[in-house]
Design brief:
Blueprint (H helix, E strand, L loop, with lengths): L2 E6 L1 H4 L3 E6 L5 E7 L7 H12 L3 E5 L1 H4 L11 H5 L4 H17 L3 E11 L1 H11 L7 E4 L16 H5 L6 E8 L5 H13 L4 E10 L12 H19 L20 E4 L1
Parallel strand pairs: 3-4, 3-5, 5-6, 6-7, 7-8, 8-9
Antiparallel strand pairs: 1-2, 2-4
Helix pairs in contact: 5-6
């Protein structure tokens, strides 16, 4: 399968960012990746390429550029931008990326999901709650803190999670330095409250950022362990024809459609 990768620009594509997709004419599944606090980095481009090899047209909007902070990289400035940008503005520009993805001729709008990493996981919760056209959501260690409402963050992610209308997968580590295990439990309860299938994975030895090669918390073994879980979840929800049946990876909880596992 030939994979096309390239930079997206406002001039040519309507949004800045990155895309990786199979060279095909027919419509197929798509993914929107929502980047972490350090911005659109090489790690996420690699992830997009891996998803494209599985058949997904994968788009990563450069949220910081779209918010008015164009730069070659946002590794040093991302945290500063995040700390002065409202969740509403993040959701607004994420939606621009979503609309670009759905409008592509090689994407089936009924088979499109979203994946958020770190900050992107937190923003993803708000975005998916506000976007019923999302068919599946994966959150890698979403940065959810115990914090009161503020002008920048008026709506807590736990409140937003109750409004999500699609199946979700959430991945956390027990050694997460951003979201405590107690906070993770509240996040889980909020996802369960929306009534849609939830696949929850807690790795007691996992760090925040365990899947990112660019993170201080990177754990190669755990990144390799998680990848097939994500692939299987997306294949099941977005209708990939070559889905592998890995039912042994799931343990039912609460007697319903949701699953959870601690490692």
């Amino acid at each position: 399968m030939q994979i096309v990768t390239r930079k997206l620009t406002e001039e040519e594509d309507g949004i800045p960012g990155y895309i990786a997709h199979p060279a095909r004419q027919e419509r197929g599944p798509g993914l929107l990746l929502i980047h972490q606090h350090s911005g659109l980095t090489g790690y996420l481009k690699t992830e997009a390429y891996k998803f494209a090899k599985l058949g997904y047209c994968t788009v990563i909007p450069n949220l910081y550029h779209m918010l008015g902070y164009p730069a070659l990289t946002h590794i040093e400035t991302g945290t500063e931008i995040q700390n002065k940008t409202t969740d509403g503005d993040f959701v607004r520009v994420t939606d621009m990326g979503w609309k670009h993805l759905l409008a592509r001729k090689n994407v089936d709008p009924m088979r499109v999901g979203a994946i958020g990493y770190c900050m992107g996981g937190r923003i993803g919760v708000h975005f998916v709650a506000a976007t019923p056209t999302v068919r599946a959501f994966v959150a890698y260690y979403p940065s959810v803190r115990d914090e009161p409402p503020s002008k920048l963050r008026p709506h807590h992610p736990c409140d937003a999670a109750r409004e999500i209308k699609c199946p979700s997968m959430v991945l956390y580590g027990g050694r997460d330095s951003t979201t405590t295990v107690e906070a993770q439990q509240r996040v889980m309860a909020s996802f369960l409250a929306n009534g849609h299938p939830l696949e929850w994975h807690l790795f007691p030895f996992g760090n925040h950022g365990f899947a990112s090669t660019e993170s201080e918390g990177y754990q190669p073994y755990l990144a390799d362990l998680v990848w097939p879980l994500v692939v299987e979840f997306l294949a099941g929800e977005l209708g990939q024809p070559d889905r592998a049946l890995l039912t042994h990876l799931q343990t039912p909880v609460h007697g319903g459609p949701s699953t959870a596992r601690a490692y």
